[in-house]
Amino acid sequence: MPKKNHLPPLVVGADIGHGFTKIAYSTGPGEHVVTHSLPSVVSLAEEDISLINPEELAAFMVEYGGDRYFIGSLATCVDDSRQLKNRDDANVAEGPVWQALMRGALGVAMRGYYHRHQAWPEDIFVASGLPVRFYDSEKARERLIDSIEAIEPFHVGNVLHPVQPGRIRAFCLPQSYASFLNELFDDAGNVREGTPLADAEVIGIMDIGHRTTDLAFIQMRNGRYNYIPSRKGFKEIGMRDVFRRLLDGIFKTHHITVPESRTSRMLVFRDGKCTLRAGGNREIDVSDLAEDALQSVASRVCDSVSFGWNLEEIDVLLLTGGAGLRLHDAIRKAGGDRFERLLLCADGFFANAKGYAKYADIEAEAFAENAPANQEQPQKQAA
Question: What's the sign of the alpha-carbon dihedral 123, 127, 128, 129?
Fold first, then answer.
């Protein structure tokens, strides 16, 4: 059982997605929620690391179980790097890519905690999640929770990040529900003033990520919000489809080949424009091609939602996810009157991570209040 100490627990929300790993953490009650992200890319660190910038190694090299991995931007420079392609597998949390990224996320939060308190956290509360199509599987939820709670001391760079046995408590939520929590409640845990979610009885959620779109419902019943997975809750469509159409247009129009793995480095979306960094300080405006790609994917998303849902019965349609933020205007244009109740999540890119962190914070407070009654090994928790 955790000992009482003067240091607060570390609260972490970790959203490990296809394109990016998003982290939200708090170092104590009333503390500001800090966010951070890194590309969800991992590679084995087999080369001579003496030639690599020490600052890069300190942030983006994870070592555990006798193996070293590059993660994030450092891994994108390695030819055999791997993205989270096996995220479509319900056992993803047991794979080395997910494991390395989760330790990278914890490392970010633990270093932030150390900077704040000049001590490592003793108790860590971590919430993460599964896509809606896997969340109904109790085994999948247990695997994710077990994978987090089994984490032992690990290195990021040359710094040992101490994790005490039995002192990580993990929780699993459906990803879409985390976005809803973040949009409904502010960082102090109060219902956001003026949010239309407060008066809604049926809420539809469109969580558009890099590769996939998750669809789910939240329904108010007997004074409680209930998560209801959508029967058509998963679509193989996301920001990757925008990039692929855009890259095809760039090749046909400008005869320039942009590797898909380099899109985040070569394409810049800013102030309503899209610019291609073509090398040699040459920049090409590809805004028209980007608009065509966004509108094409937005139309596909709108058609999928309209086919699967009775939009007249939905009070609010919450749009979230990193790609949701990018596609918002195009979806409004493509959906027309059908999507007049569309609400863009305020923290689209970090919405799931911040929602996870809020849930973990609630569990940390409940644990502190009931500390004498808690058993040595906490029961596995799922939302």
Answer: positive
Residue 208, number of CB atoms within 10 A of its CB? 29
Domains in the chain: ranges and CATH: 10-179+350-382 (3.30.420.40)
- Residue 229 belongs to what H/E stretch? strand 224-235
pLDDT tier at 376 (50, 70, 90 boundaries)?
very low
- Report the distance separating Cα 289 and Cα 275, nearest Å: 10
Strand partners, 214: 207, 234
Beginning with the edge strand found earlier in the chain, give each strand of the sheet holding 20-26 in spatial order: 34-39, 20-26, 10-16, 124-130, 168-174, 381-382
**Helix intervals (H) in 16-95:** 54-60, 72-75
Distance CA 9, CA 361 (A): 9
Quote the distance between the C-alpha of residue 125 and its chain's center: 17
> Distance between CA 219 and CA 200 in Å, rounded?
8
3-class state of residue 176 by DSSP: helix
Output DSSP code: residue 59.
H
**The tokens 């998303």 sit on which residue?**
301
Please, what is the average pLDDT of the chain? Answer: 85
- CA dist 264 and 140 (Å) reads 31
Q: Round to whole Å and give the CA distance between 94 and 198.
A: 37
Judge whether 230 and 309 are in contact, CB under 8 Å: yes
Greatest mean pLDDT among 2-11, 109-118, 155-164, 366-375 lies in 109-118
Quickly tell me which residue has 């108790």 as its tokens. Answer: 123
Pairing label, strands 34-39, 10-16 = unpaired
Which is more confident, 243 or 321? 243
Compute the CA torsion angle 294, 295, 296, 298 (nearest 10 deg): 80
pTM here is: 0.83
Count helices and strands (H / E) in the chain: 11, 20
